[in-house]
């Protein structure tokens, strides 16, 4: 069943590990059969001689600039809800039907700033 919405996955930094890149490519190909999918990478700023809170804030600004007001923002965090594949499919289908444009945000090694978490709907 093809979903009529649009999924956007926005990450901080690039994946460098070849195995993870292969996994990403596989999932992009799989998801592409069911919906329109966009991958967006924003620059990580960790380790650039700036304090961690400033780095998180800058990365957060980039994440939020990469989406529009029409997106339903979902932050993927270590404390988020774990779902089975069928459960995730059902959950995602409902979100796409209800909101149309879904943006999954994946933070950098420091996580998300409070501003990003406050802007997210889930």
How would you briefly describe this protein structure?
With 122 residues, the protein is α/β, with parallel strands linked by helices. It has a single domain, classed as Alpha/beta knot (3-Layer(aba) Sandwich).
Helices, strands, pairings?
Blueprint: E1 6-12, H1 18-32, E2 36-42, H2 52-65, E3 71-76, H3 85-99, E4 101-106, H4 114-119
Parallel strand pairs: 1-2, 1-4, 3-4
Task: Give structural notes.
With 122 residues, the protein is of the alpha/beta class. It has a single domain (6-119), classed as SPOUT methyltransferase, trefoil knot domain (Alpha/beta knot, 3-Layer(aba) Sandwich), CATH 3.40.1280. The chain has 4 helices and 4 strands. The protein has helices spanning 18-32, 52-65, 85-99, 114-119, and strands spanning 6-12, 36-42, 71-76, 101-106. It has a 4-stranded parallel β-sheet. The longest helix has 15 residues, at 18-32. The two termini are 25 Å apart.
Overview features:
21% strand; 122 residues; Alpha/beta knot; four-stranded parallel β-sheet; globular; 4 helices; alpha/beta
Q: Can you tell me the number of structural domains?
A: 1
Label the structural class: alpha/beta
Gyration radius, in Å: 15 Å
Determine the number of helices (DSSP H or I, runs of at least 4 residues).
4
Q: Estimate what percentage of residues fall within beta strands.
A: 15-25%
């Amino acid at each position: 069943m093809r979903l009529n919405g649009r999924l956007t996955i926005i990450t901080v930094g690039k994946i460098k590990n070849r195995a993870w890149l292969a996994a990403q490519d596989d999932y992009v190909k799989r998801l592409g059969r069911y919906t329109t999918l966009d991958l967006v990478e924003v620059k990580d700023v960790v380790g650039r001689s700036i304090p961690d809170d400033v780095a998180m804030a800058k990365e957060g600004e980039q994440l939020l600039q990469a989406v529009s007001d029409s997106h339903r923002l979902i932050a993927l965090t270590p404390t988020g809800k774990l779902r089975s594949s069928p459960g995730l499919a059902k959950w995602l289908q409902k979100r796409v039907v209800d909101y149309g444009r879904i943006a999954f945000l994946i933070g950098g090694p420091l996580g998300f700033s409070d501003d990003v978490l406050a802007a997210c709907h889930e």
